[in-house]
Amino acid sequence: MNEQTVSRKTFDEVMVPCFSPAPFVPVRGEGSRVWDTEGRDYIDFACGIAVTSLGHAHPELLRVLHEQGGKLWHVGNGYTNEPVLRLARKLEALSFAERAFFANSGAEANEAALKLARRVAFERHGAEKFEIVSFTQSFHGRTFFTVSVGGQPKYSEGFGPVPAGIVHLPYNDIEAAKRAIGAQTCAVIVEPVQGEGGVIPADPAFLRALRAACDANNALLIFDEVQTGVGRTGTFYAYEDTGVTPDILTTAKALGNGFPIGAMITTEALAAYFKVGAHGTTYGGNPLAAAIADKVVELISDPAVLAGVRARGEAIRARLAKLNDRFDVFKDVRGKGLLIGAELSARFKGRAKDFNAAAAKRGVMMLIAGADVLRFAPSLIIPEADISEGFKRIEQAFEDVIGAR
Predict the structure, then answer these.
(1) Are residues 259 and 289 in contact, defined by beta-carbon separation less than 8 angstroms?
(2) CA 199 to CA 368: how far, in whole Å?
(3) Binding site annotation covers 282?
(4) Known binder of ligand: residue 398?
(5) How are cofactors bound according to the entry's free-text note (predicted)?
């Protein structure tokens, strides 16, 4: 039987139109390069939205995929399995946590975290302590609960009444947080660096204030590290560099390097409130995903790899500064490690998509974070040659948008 011929046009004919994909179709990747159906190559600065942090077709991950694929793919959570137990031990050894719950995505990990926080508050303090504090421009997933907790109303509007007891505050506003976190608050959820919201790092003093307010009001502090975790900011988890330890942490994206897996990690005392039957999943923690994630964690937690993340981050910032010297296009460049946001200046306001599209035409896959921010989240081990070639192409793309200067 011959394979059906498909193209970007096929998407419009067969898929639900909740995405608007690029005009080209990637078919193969190796390291930090991707090739499309026409054989064109692209430097990958997007990483599948901060996911393929060890690049495409990493030989060690391919080996694990084949080995575990020949043993056991799935058994369901009526049974445990060896890879998931090894992965849990590894994540706990690298963090404050003592217990892990595995899911299939960051949204599911956040759903578990929020449900656990409400269950803990209900059992410890009663039904009136259910309020969840989040922050404007935050992003926590696309389930109805997580998208409602997220601070971008455009993603929750038009689906009916949102769940009650959710409060949104300005990010990095200590006084607003002190006023709002109180007796009814069961949890505060925060990204150490807001990703979708514009690549905005949290002020360490802000995170310390959240920790203090949670402690004073018997509330739990949840760090959403779906995007920042697993080495992205230059430490294995971003909280390590903040001086603040959360009660619950969520992780996904890079954890499986593209194979779907997410996790919620927490303390033994809090995990005890998720008694048998209180929460669950069919696919979460299956042996195939867990085996791949275990190898990802082993490779990225290497101190040399994490040091390389920090060095590569500085190298990309230096190249962005050179671009800005020539084109005067950025108002601000911010972020941590290899999660970098370049905010466009006022004269290019709202044109992030234009720059992104121009880069794609020149052979670079990039991201945006809102209408005004170009987001860079390449592989944590991207070679210097690919960084150099990528920025050569980006410079050409800027010429296309702005003109030669």
Answers:
(1) yes
(2) 10
(3) yes
(4) no
(5) Binds 1 pyridoxal phosphate per subunit.
The CA-CA-CA angle for residues 34, 40, 46, to 5°, reads: 35
Domain count, the chain: 2
333 known member of a binding site:
no
Q: Where a domain ends, among 277, 300, 323? A: 300
186 and 281 in a single domain? The answer is yes
Claim to verify: residue 256 and residue 330 sit in the same structural domain: no
Q: Is 225 labelled a binding residue?
A: yes
**Is 142 a known ligand-binding residue?**
yes
> What is the torsional sign of CA 20, 23, 24, 25?
positive
For residue 31, give the amino acid letter: G
Q: Does the annotation place 37 within a ligand binding site?
A: no
Which tens digit of pLDDT belongs to each residue from 163-174?
Answer: 999 999 999 999
* Amino acid, single-letter form, for residue 282: T
Last residue of a domain, one of 242, 268, 300: 300
- Number of H helices and E strands in the chain, helices first, is 13, 17
Q: Which residues of the chain are modeled with pLDDT < 70? A: 1-3, 405
Binding site annotation covers 5?
no
Q: Could you report the per-residue pLDDT of 100-122, keeping only the tens digit for each?
A: 999 999 999 999 999 999 999 99
Q: Report whether 226 belongs to an annotated binding site.
A: yes
> Do residues 307 and 296 both lie within one domain?
no
pLDDT at site 57: 98
Q: Kindly write down the DSSP assignment for every residue of 274-338, as one continuous string.
A: S-TTSS--SSTT-HHHHHHHHHHHHHHTSHHHHHHHHHHHHHHHHHHHHHHHHH--EEEEEEETT
Whether the model clears a pTM of 0.85, i.e. scores above it, the answer is yes
